Each structure stands twice: as structure tokens, then as C-alpha cells.
Hints:
Number of strands: 0
Largest sheet: none
Shape: globular
Amino acid sequence: MNFIQAILMGIVQGLSEFLPISSSAHLVFTSNFYKVFKGIEITQTSNEEVFFDIMVHLGTLIAVLIFFRKDILKIIKALYNAIKTKDWSDKDAKLGLYIIIGTILTIILALPINEVAEKLVYSPVIVGILLFFTGFTLLYSEYKSKKIEQKKDEPDLKSSIFIGLAQGLAALPGFSRSGWTIATGLFFGLDRVTAARYSFLLSIPIILGASMVYPLIKIDVAEAVQYNWTAIIAGTFVSGVVGYLCIKYFMQFISKFSLAVFGYYCLIMGIITALFFYFC
């Protein structure tokens, strides 16, 4: 891991974590493109690279925490009051409960496929194909959403269950987490802004858990001392700054425009990358 590679991957993570284009897929593509042009075997992935991937996700987590800090505090306060009074009528308390339910379902689905997901890091062709399916899903969700006349401005139990499952499925690189969760929200009649807001809030527990659990379980402290920490910290910082700006302007974008442009991007990017890595 060198400084230039870290900055580049930090930018890619910051842009692609919240845009519905699969950050994991773009990290796989960026890393493997770099290896191809440097003449390094694609199957060679160091523990440092895996740790760096976790750290740039932590950077984007900090971005979403800062951007939605007021919403998060309201939800935590509402949850506390609901538990204390046993009154769950407050919409913020319900939202917090739905996030908890969605997170549990995400974990239940993601854990069994996690081993497969880790191996796909070495299979950019398959990741490209999965990204293609993400594009199709985004386009189809927009088509279905247009047929729903009365849009909802908050999730319910049913939609939160399926959005949580969609987030679990998105453990596979190429299946965009934000893309699949927002698309699922659209399928269940949520408006785009509500679906995106819920998607970003739902991402917090999962990214937080991954950022804390993985280093504690799998990182060798003696080995980690030798990592290029200057590059890791720089990449993490860049991913956070870019991620914050991405959330800000993406929320403005989807309040006015559809997700079709991201759907077409995923279709094209999926085909191009699958073909590139298949023939290289």
C-alpha cells in the first residue's frame, strides 16, 4: 500500500459508498487495475489491503455520522423515551426500532455469505457481473416506483425487513449496499429522499461493527505496526471528506432526479470491467 494508491482508493470509497454504484466493487476494480498495470498477480492481496478497506469504510462512517448527527441524536433520544415509557407512537422511535430490526436481518443474511464475499475480491469478472445486476435493479425500481401514485415519507415494518435483507445481500461486492437498499425502498413505495435517508442511517451499525470487530479479531498487531500508516490515515481522511460531500450533493440530486443515471452507469461499468478482467 503506497500513498498514491491510498489517496486514489480513498476518493473511490468516498464517492462510491453513498452513490448506488457499489463501493466494494470499485475498490476491487481500483485495486486490481493497479495490480494489472504494475504486473502484480490479482490473487495477491495483503492483510494491509484488507485492513485499509476497513479503514476507508470507517472514514465514510464518520462522514455519515457528521451529516446525520441531528437525526441520530433524535432517534437515540426517542428510543430511550419509548423504552422508558413503553410508548412507541413517536415516529423517530419507530425509525430507530426499524433500524435495529433491519440491522439484525442484515447480519443474519450477511454472515453466511461473508466467506464467499471475501473470495470475490479475487474475481473482478464476477464482481463486474454483479454490478451489472445492480444497474438493472436500479432501473427496474425506478420503473416500479413511477407506478406508485402515493409515496410514503417514512418506512414501515414490512419495508424495513426487506431493506435489511437487501443490505445483507449487498455484502457481495458488486451488489451496491446503497443501491439495493434504496431500490428496495422504492419497491415498497418510499420516495427517493426517504429511501436514501433510511439507507444511510441503516448503514451506520453495520459499518461501525465491521470497523471495530474485524481489527480486533483478524489483525495481527505485530504485523500492523509495519503497515504504511501515513497512507492508511491519509486514505481514511480523504474517504471521509469526499463521502461527506457526496452525501450532501447526492441528497440534493435525488430530490429532483431519478436513479436512472446510476443504473445505466452500473450496467456499462459492469460490462466493461467484466470484459477487461476476463481478457487481461
